[in-house]
Amino acid sequence: MNSGISCLQNTPLLTNYFLEDKHRNEYNPDNVLASKDCALTKKYSLLLKHLHIGTSDVFAPRKFKRAVGNRNAMFEDFG
Asked: Where in the sequence is the domain holding 47, given as residue range(s)?
């Protein structure tokens, strides 16, 4: 998971997209099928903000990991 997050956060266009909250314009709360995707993108945005703006040297991405597990059952039981 660490390697995956590291790769994603080192993609400048994607990281800036989330850090600048541009993803919020694309949420559709009326779409029931996208609700898991919205939760995942919200948690990823928070994760990036903790990594890039946060004041702590240590951060456990439990909420993001849980959102990934909710989106794909293959990752539910890890960590």
From this structure: 2-75
